[in-house]
Amino acid sequence: MLNYIKKTPEYLQSIAAIWLILVALTIFAEVTFRNLGIFLGADQIVQNSVPAIVFLQVPFAIASGTMLRTTLIYDFFKKRGKMIINIISYVIGIMLFVGIAVGGWTDMIKGWEIGEYQGIGAIEFPVYPIRTVIIFSSIIVVFIYLSLIIKSLSGSEDSSNILNMSKK
Questions:
Q1: Residue 158 within a domain
Q2: How many domains does the chain have?
Q3: Does 121 or 148 have the greater pLDDT score?
Q4: For the segment 58-90, what is each residue's pLDDT rounded down to a tens digit?
């Protein structure tokens, strides 16, 4: 199972990168063809794509240990103190992402049931896949944090990285 936890964030980040390129091309098309009236509605696509792209990249940022953190107090502690701080932050992360998943679950299900769309006019964008991406990514992040807790409790030197990537 740990192997899936290692590979999934990489796949999600690849999907996010491809999606971002498509969004950039959509914006380019909107700007290029605006005066011809051929393509309208990039604002709906961008507005709904940004949260999905962010949530697709969060698992990789956490799993690779590249999530932004301050070490102002952290550096003053020895190994055991750092382990405690890491575990506390991982538990807080679990609570946050469980809250996101639980809080959005009903809206995601209802969105699939009614085929929820957003936008009026030129383009209507389906919202239910975006809600699903947010819930799915939140669940993946919970598993990543659980893996980080296990790695931290095992006494690993670098417990903030489950992908075994070197920090830059």
A1: no
A2: 1
A3: 148
A4: 999 999 888 777 788 888 889 898 899 899 999
Q: Containing domain of residue 104, as a range? A: 2-153
User: Tokens representing 99?
Assistant: 């809250």
pTM for this entry? 0.84
Buried b (16+ CB within 10 A) or exposed e, 81-119: ebbebbbebbeebbeebeebbeebeeebeebeeeebeeb
Q: 117 has which bridge partners?
A: 126
- Classify residue 18: in a domain, yes or no: yes
Q: Characterize 30-66 residue by residue with b for buried, 16 or more Cβ atoms within 10 angstroms of its Cβ, and e for exposed.
A: beeeeeeeeeebbebbbebbeebbebbbbbbbbbbbe
Closest of 28, 48, 30, 49 to residue 39, by C-alpha: 30
- In a domain? residue 164: no
- Residue 149's Cβ-count burial label (10 Å; 0-12, 13-18, 19+) is middle
Region 108-126 average pLDDT: 84
* Conformational region of residue 159, where left means phi above 0, alpha means psi within -120 to 50, and beta covers everything else: alpha
- 160 in a structural domain: no
What are the residues whose beta carbons fall under 8 Å from the beta carbon of 15, sequence distance 6 or more? 56
